[in-house]
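Run log, item B.
One chain of 220 residues. Sequence copied directly from the ordering sheet:
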Amino acid sequence: MSVPDLIGPGAGAPAPERLSMGVAARLARYLQVLTQAKREGKETVSSQELSTWTKVNSTQIRRDLSGFGKFGKRGVGYNVDALVAQIRKILRTAGPHNIALFGAGHLGRAIASSDIFADHGFSVVAIFDSAPDKIGSAVGHLTVRPVSDLAAAVDEEDIVVGVLAVPNNAAQGLADVLVDAGVKIIFNYSEALLQVPPEVTVHTSSPAVDLLYALYFYLT
């Protein structure tokens, strides 16, 4: 079955200047599960399957997607490859986008070796640490560099995202270094409450908070 069978007129309609937070969050969730479905060899998915995996009502899914074009076909569903490409276009994340990773400990090494970013067009191109015993060591195909190399790396490697996989007490100082180097997006795996200028976006990932969120819905 060809992609045109599943994406008709209106496909690829331009995204609005700014998506609402709710729509952007749901589209990102759809992209996450579609990417996994693609990895598992699925060629098409239905809105009901997406609903099962994302916990978003299937009517809401169809409404979200129909706002940007005709992406599905009744009785057939969505072409996974095509929908992944279209959502990335809508979210303006077609990539590639380069990442600087801070922290060469257990968490940092796990992140660097994971496909979690690569699946979505992000590449860890530089890894930094302040510990002398880690600087110069290998993490996959990368060599751990001192934090003092960051400014040059941002320019040379076209880095747009900084990922902090460091202890809480180190996070703010590294966030300051990233801001000074011109990085506008910080992904924070620590629990530190980072203070950054308004033009810098910080996303803090907390497994504990995610578990509390899941537990709330389980108990209620």
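Observations after the first pass:
- Residues 1-16 have pLDDT under 50 and may be disordered.
- Residues 97-209 form a domain with the Rossmann fold fold (CATH 3.40.50.720).
Flagged for discussion on Thursday.
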